[in-house]
Amino acid sequence: MDEIAYSQKQKEDQQKYESLCRRCGACCGAYSGDPCVHLEQETAGKYKCSVYETRIGMQKTLSGKNFACVPIRDLRPNLPFEGCVYYERC
Questions:
Q1: Distance of alpha carbon 16 from its chain centroid, rounded?
Q2: d(Cα 86, Cα 84) in Å, to the nearest integer?
Q3: pLDDT digit string (tens) for 46-58?
Q4: Position with higher pLDDT, 15 vs 36
Q5: Exposed/middle/buried for residue 47 (C-beta within 10 Å: 0-12, 13-18, 19+)
Q6: What is the pTM assigned to this prediction?
């Protein structure tokens, strides 16, 4: 597979993986009592990240604690939230 085809495959796989998300907010602390400052509730049970495209790296919780935001695939197989679709499929 050439470099261009590989890059395109990676992009398609990432889009497919991201499309699985139910936007429950669990991975961003919606149910921990100290969520990420960038977590915004859209509707009941649906959340979004206000800095989604640039989220990876050091972030803060509402209480000011620092944490490293990482792609959800990097948390597998140790996902702490059983309701997450990634937990169910991994």
A1: 14
A2: 5
A3: 999 999 889 999 9
A4: 36
A5: buried
A6: 0.73
* Residue in 73, 90, 89 with CA at minimum distance from that of residue 27: 73
Contact predicate 27/81, CB 8 Å: yes
Can you read off the two tokens belonging to residue 81?
Answer: 């939230």
Q: How confident is the model at residue 44 (pLDDT cuts 50, 70, 90)?
A: confident
Nearest to 65, CA basis, from 32, 41, 25: 32
Alpha helices (H) in 1-90, listed in sequence order = 3-19, 85-89
Quote the CA–CA distance of 8 and 15 in Å, as a whole number. 11
Place of tokens 């620092």: 66
User: How many residues are recorded in the chain?
Assistant: 90
**Type of residue numbered 82:** E
Spell out the residues 6+ positions from residue 89 whose beta carbon is closer than 8 angstroms to its own: 20
How far, in Å, CA of 23 to CA of 33, rounded? 17
